[in-house]
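Box 3.1 A note on notation
Throughout this textbook, protein chains are presented in two layers. The first layer is the amino acid sequence; the second is a token string describing backbone geometry. Keep the layers aligned when reading.
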Amino acid sequence: MFRETTNLSLTHVKKARERIKGLINRTPCIYSLPLSRRTGKRVFLKLENLQITQSFKARGNANKVAQLTEDEKTKGVITASSGNHGQGLSLAALRSGIRATIVLPKAAPTNKVEEVKGNKSKVIIHGETYDDAAAYAHSLAQEEGYIYIPSFDDPDIIAGNASMGMEILEDIPDVELILCPIGGGGGISGVSVAVKQIKSSVKIIGVEAEQAPSMLESIKANKIVELPLADTIADGIAIRRPGRLNFEIVKRYVDDIVTVSEDEMKATIITLAREAKIIAEAAGAAATAALLFGKLTIECSNVVCIVTGGNIDLSLFKTILNNIS
């Protein structure tokens, strides 16, 4: 495993992509005629909701677990997650015959908790938020000797996620702008590390929930900021404090960060379902919401919105559908 650094080279990224080939889906990047007509741009959707765990998190976890030593595998792994990272790690651990413990907050959606259990991991529900669960998972790692696998603040996780960016450039070589949701920053870090080193002219905009703008506030302050609260329907990006490595990479490579409201994400969930026939969770809909609700700060014609996940609780989806006409 390479050292923690913001200078993740294309060699690292390419090796990670080769390492996880066959362990993840190469997801499609499709042209959306309905969204293109609505926005006056050529709009493409990178469908990580069709990833093997219905979230991009499978990529980084596959790369991380593939590089564990035999001694580390024997100790077992642990992490904290709001759901999608837990699914990614639990699947990677199951495939490698490694014991895994996943700590999730009480707010974690039931469907995500059940998917983690389905991957034969030990599930612990602790705390109200992701940050509470993370603190407890770290303490358990120290007490029990488990190997802690970060959700986003890790170079191997970032390198695995970078495969998304490489796929986008291969499928849409004339892309001008990529919109990517931001929670802790692991997804956009990977995408930007790959894209900016291959085609630096491509602009990258990160999208956060208005009620959890930890990366945006950190960039404004030029230091990592911890929010007092991250209360958003988008559990996948409800992070109070971004990762240290991710903060440095976003500063270096990401062109802008915008925010979207709860109602904008809800409306976009419905638009994606009705017009594009795509099921997205709130975090997964955030990038498209920024496009549909006029948050772009950069003029462009060819846009890719990354739908980072589709693990929406069906009861929540039904409620959103019933409340938006």
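Residues 271 and 277 are 9 Å apart (CA to CA). The domain at 10-56+155-323 is CATH 3.40.50.1100 (Rossmann fold).
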